[in-house]
Specification:
heterodimer, A: 150 residues, 3 helices, 24% helix, B: 11% helix, globular
Chain lengths: 150, 350
């Protein structure tokens, strides 16, 4: 337990240091529109020969600062689960297989792996504007559930 | 019952997936270890194999819409263990019955596991349609037995609460014998496509039970959720009189192939339950596939019943006969389990 407390303290120090730089650090939406995304589910739809996908995502900014590039503070990561992340979900419904293959850089649709991590880049409509979604089937929604248990 | 949790969806906007690339485990191990690895307790093999104890009396295949949720009842007709506690994902919410639609006037909610009633959860794999009810209800104070597989950051935060409460146990052994069931760690067959690996490396459950209920001989039921039947050892596929159709009746990646044979004296009398959802008259993902349904018949699994259509598997999208299925003896539940979405069983495989 003493070890865990020490490591948790390291996480706190890390976050304090970052907050002192004046950068918000719990934003689920990436300022760069780049995310580290875990493919939680991909399902083939026989009805229309298309695919539904769900990614669990964390912004590039959070992942790089907290997990990937912090060797000094976190010497023994295996002993300490990471802190709660600002994770969100990204769901695409009725994606064309050819577009998925192109976007994810695989040879065939079966090569897309559930339970693997991907680095994803997105286009987003600027504030107050709408982008034409007709030229891509890979438009989806970033969302999260808000649950209140009485 | 109370009105249940309030569930709303917070959206952050529409995004177009422009490009992406898979991050290999080699060279990025900290992504897979720090963010995905579960730290819960390991489930270790018992030193001595338990004898077959008085079996499970019946198994509920619950109607939750598109997903899976199975409930084991012991010899006193008391619910003891869930195998999966799922809920339809965001796109299939409308397939849920009114009794499970949060906010609907007809909402009743499930039989909730709690420290008081001692119900535990065994999870086949980390798909929301297999664990969603547990997530929505925030059930981090009851025991979960889960596959030793990675999770995403959104699920990881829920798992962290389970770990903090010492409620998460990972299955790390090929076989584990419990009081009321046996757990098998599924192993994908060589050549399984990456897209199907996760479904096929979860955990399956085999249950000793009186099925058919008129036969005092103990037989077995095998539940594999989304995993193919050939992912469990051949020994686990013996003496079966009941199964759950793999992957909601899918026809892809070998799901309806390598079906087990029935126990002696029950050739062509096997009981098979299908768990799938229909929304607005459309079968979610096209499950179950008609050709897959036929393969089960061809393999002797002729007594068929579904949560979405009763015995009219893949023939009645009006859902006139939707509802929970009881595999085994259909004794009405006691007073402690009334007025829930899981109280009544309009469908039976006995």
């Amino acid at each position: 337990m003493a070890t865990n407390k020490k490591l948790n303290s390291s996480w706190n120090t890390l976050f304090s240091n970052i907050e002192e730089q004046g950068v918000p650090f719990d934003e689920p939406v990436s300022s760069s529109n780049v995310y580290y995304a875990f493919l939680a589910n991909i399902e083939y739809n026989y009805n229309n020969d298309k695919y539904d996908l769900f990614f669990e995502m964390v912004s590039q900014e959070w992942m790089q600062n907290t997990i990937l590039f912090n060797d000094q503070l976190l010497k023994k990561p295996s002993l300490s689960p990471p802190p709660k992340s600002p994770a969100v979900l990204y769901g695409i419904q009725d994606a064309e297989s050819s577009e998925l293959i192109d976007a994810l850089g695989v040879d065939k649709i079966d090569d897309i792996e559930e339970g693997a991590w991907y680095k994803l880049e997105f286009d987003v409509a600027p504030d107050g504007e709408n982008l034409d979604e007709s030229d891509s089937s890979l438009w989806g929604e970033i969302f999260d559930y808000e649950i209140t248990n009485d | 019952m109370g009105k249940g949790p309030t569930v709303t969806v917070k959206t952050y906007g529409r995004y177009n997936l422009r490009s992406g690339r898979k991050i290999d485990k080699i060279g990025k191990t900290r992504l897979y270890t720090r963010m995905s690895r579960l730290h819960g307790m390991r489930l270790r093999p018992l030193r001595r194999v338990l004898p077959v104890l008085p079996p499970i009396q019946s198994i509920g295949i619950m109607d939750i819409g598109q997903g899976n949720c199975n409930l084991l009842f012991d010899q006193t007709n008391t619910p003891v263990t869930y195998y999966d506690f799922g809920y339809p994902n965001h796109f299939n919410y409308r397939s849920a019955p009114l009794s499970l639609k949060f906010g609907d006037p007809a909402f009743l909610g499930p039989i909730l596991p709690s420290a008081a009633n001692g119900i535990n959860i065994v999870l086949s794999h980390w798909d929301f349609d297999h664990y969603g009810l547990g997530y929505i209800y925030g059930l981090d104070n009851i025991p979960w037995t889960v596959p030793d597989d990675g999770v995403g950051p959104w699920t990881r935060d829920f798992c962290a609460r389970l770990e903090a409460n010492n409620m998460l146990t990972r299955v790390t052994t090929p076989v584990h014998y419990a009081i009321n069931y046996t757990i098998f760690r599924c192993v994908p067959t060589p050549g399984t496509a990456p897209i199907a690996l996760r479904n096929n490396r979860g955990i399956a459950m085999r249950i000793a039970t009186n099925l058919p209920s008129t036969d005092a001989t103990i037989h077995r039921v095998l539940l594999t959720a989304d995993a193919n039947f050939d992912t469990v050892p051949p020994a686990a596929r013996q003496n079966l009189t009941g199964i759950l159709a793999a992957h909601h009746g899918s026809g892809l990646h070998g799901a309806p192939d390598h079906l087990p044979v029935q126990a002696n004296n029950y050739n062509n009398q096997g009981r098979v339950a299908f768990s799938y959802g229909i929304k607005n008259g459309v079968y979610c993902y096209g499950h179950p596939r008609p050709d897959a349904v036929q393969k089960y018949i061809d393999a002797g699994w002729n007594r068929q019943c579904s949560t979405a259509e009763g015995v009219n598997v893949r023939t009645d999208p009006t859902q006139a006969n939707r509802g929970n299925i009881r595999m085994g003896i259909n004794t009405p539940l006691g007073p402690g389990f009334q007025n829930t979405a899981f109280t009544n069983f309009p469908n039976q495989l006995d």
